[in-house]
Amino acid sequence: MKFPRRRFLYLAGVAAAVAVLSVTVTGHGAWSQTARTIKVVVTVQPGGGADFLARVLGEEIGRTQGPTMVIENRPGAGSIIGTEAVSHAAPDGNTLLIINPTFVMNPHLRKVNYDPVTSFEPICYLVNAPTVIVVNSASPYRTLADLLDAARARPGDLTLAGSGSFYIAFEMLKRAANLNMTFVPYPGGAPAVTALLGEHVTSVFTDYPTLAAQLKAGKLRALATGSRTRAEALPDVPTVAESGYKDYDVENWFGVSAPAKTPKETVSQLVGWFTAALQVPEVKAKLAVQGLYPVGICGADFGAFVRKQYDDYGRSIREANITPQ
After folding, report:
1. Same domain flag for 120 and 140
2. Residue 240: C-alpha distances to residues 34, 88, 230 (Å)
3. Quick check: is 1 in a domain?
């Protein structure tokens, strides 16, 4: 799909004063002349997959399209703080939100002041990423069966750390494997990994990009991946399904959304920018190293995906009688 070329005017006085780029786009209902930056809110701390993705795509879009893409990390309350802030932002395309399964899970678990379906304009399903259960390389557990057997032998003693949607992934595993294991919540995957490296928790369940560097350095050991098929980045690591829990399937995904009522022309332009960035070979290579694989489903199709995820997770949460940690 082709999108009209946009003409950018650089307001030198403003740029000199505040070191940001002003963007003006011609066309009916297009970008406001007051736009200077595009803020991309990431609802976890720096260092995780969402943060890495936002920075790589933000750099590419800024380089090729002109706007200054500012990444703002706003963790807290299981991602609710940042999400609510974006839902109440002006619908002008200048504030965006990186979303993942937590976005559609939270309304089923907590009181939130937004609706994942009606409070946002879907832009694009950007990438998906393997989910991985890991232990410290010094751990005695070499397989998922080792870890789960130890958890059954010592009820309540062993811990699994994670953030956001990984609490649901943990509860699903706990139910499938009949475990008495303790979940330790963190405000992002990166601090959970830090805790594991310090041997403060037994294991961590998070996305591969958060773990990639430590796995490659040999500081962590992968026991299993959560999706139904093996991860391309970890071909020798079995899935949870292969480990005896055949119906288990947990995959992480990342998308980008804007506040509801953002003009269609602005949404279309953002779709074009993100779609183009995902197709750049250098960007693909950077993402692949981190186990992030471009999808690029955008607009109404992404909106339908979000609605289905919201409905599916709601059903799973009710059936498993899952409550907030």
Report:
1. no
2. 50, 39, 9
3. no
Same-domain pairing of 96 and 144: no
**pTM, rounded to two decimals:** 0.76
Collapsing DSSP states into helix, strand and coil, what is residue 152? helix
Of residues 68, 72, 81, 80, the one with CA closest to residue 45: 72
Q: Are residues 296 and 311 in the same domain?
A: yes
Reference 65, options 257, 271, 283, 273; nearest CA is 273
- At residue 2, what is the residue type? K
Task: Look up the CATH number of the domain holding residue 181.
Answer: 3.40.190.10
Q: In angstroms, what CA-CA distances link 182 with 23, 150, 226?
A: 49, 13, 18
Predicted confidence (pLDDT) per residue in 75-84, tens digit:
988 899 999 9
- Report the DSSP pairing between strands 252-259 and 120-129: antiparallel
Q: Look at residue 32 and tell me whether its pLDDT is greater than 70.
A: no
Strands 131-136 and 203-207: what pairing?
A: antiparallel
Does residue 18 have a pLDDT over 60?
no
| Contact of 133 with 204, CB cutoff 8 Å | yes
Q: Which residue segment(s) compose the domain that 50 sits in?
A: 12-128+254-319
Distance of alpha carbon 266 from alpha carbon 247, whole angstroms: 41
Contacting residues for 193 by C-beta, under 8 A, at least 6 apart: 204, 206, 210, 211, 214, 220
141 is written with which tokens? 């557990």
CATH number at residue 271: 3.40.190.150
Number of domains in the chain: 2
